[in-house]
Amino acid sequence: xxxxxxxxxxxxxxxxxxxxxxxxxxxxxxxxxxxxxxxxxxxxxxxxxxxxxxxxxxxxxxxxxxxxxxxxxxxxxxxxxxxxxxxxxxxxxxxxxxxxxxxxxxxxxxxxxxxxxxxxxxxxxxxxxxxxxxxxxxxxxxxxxxxxxxxxxxxxxxxxxxxxxxxxxxxxxxxxxxxxxxxxxxxxxxxxxxxxxxxxxxxxxxxxxxxxxxxxxxxxxxxxxxxxxxxxxxxxxxxxxxxxxxxxxxxxxxxxxxxxxxxxxxxxxxxxxxxxxxxxxxxxxxxxxxxxxxxxxxxxxxxxxxxxxxxxxxxxxxxxxxxxxxxxxxxxxxxxxxxxxxxxxxxxxxxxxxxxxxxxxxxxxxxxxxxxxxxxxxxxxxxxxxxxxxxxxxxxxxxxx
Length: 401
Description:
By secondary structure, this protein is of the alpha/beta class. It is 53% helix and 11% strand. The chain contains twelve helices and eight strands. The chain has helices at 17-25, 79-98, 122-131, 150-167, 200-249, 262-275, 282-296, 299-309, 318-345, 354-365, 368-381, 387-398, and strands at 4-11, 44-46, 66-71, 108-114, 140-145, 174-179, 185-188, 193-195. Strand 7 and strand 8 form a beta hairpin. Helix 9 (318-345) crosses helix 11 (368-381) and helix 9 packs across helix 12. The longest helix is centred in the middle third of the chain and has 50 residues, at 200-249.
């Protein structure tokens, strides 16, 4: 089960996803319907959550990758139903990231398009990309279902590729466009004209070949998602500390007393370290102390505070100016700390890289951007003595990208 791939089927209602599933797994497990009304009302896994597709396994890649098929609610005409389908899949995917379950990772996407419609509406592609936004690099195969007319297949393939080039930010994810007939279709029974099943083996063969790449891509996407989530939490903690600093800073803080912010900064750094899974030990304590000391009592910090106090505060009261100064100091240290701990989390740096983190902070404190941002904050708030609002503006301007 460790090397089992998960393939998502997604597309408009009535595109023939259920019929395709039955053709691939070789049984009638998925309910089918006639027309544009979809039959799938919730996300389902085929054949089931504890088994894999046995079809064509003798031709599987050397690393023995097989797959499950994950069926989704079809995109229907109404906005509310489309939103339901998109949100359901996004929630299903995110729940899988919480326990790092392979069962809910997506390694390949089959985007099903009805070959009889002759059109691929931009909204359909956008809905698909929105629903699978967590899986930004997972390969995509467009399956043109109901491809009964052979002369139309080439035109449909060109239509799909043109649409992806136009509406997808990463069209290279589209690895193949495969027309299929999943079930025998009667064109003229009296004349004995039928469209026989076709393209299923090609679809499976190409999917098996792409799954190793998809498994790697899914792992990268999960790492990127978790990193983004940690970054959001860390930024939130910095924003809270910036607000507290602005409130404290409303009381004039002489240069010599800038260390009054140290307890606040220490608490903020401890929280950021925990978000990135940094254990509390002697090494992390030294790492944190270097950040705090460099950010508050070093020569670079003192020079920054002096420069901040020299900013022309036309029509600005002392409490506003000091709130901006305190908030700017904490926001700067917080954002640098997010970067530093993220580098440790990613393995690019270690807690032993004391000189690196010290130099990084000193360089940031010497940046003219801090003074420019602080001046912009002063010009924005004017005389308004509202610490929370000041903090919000500070964080917005100081937040790292």
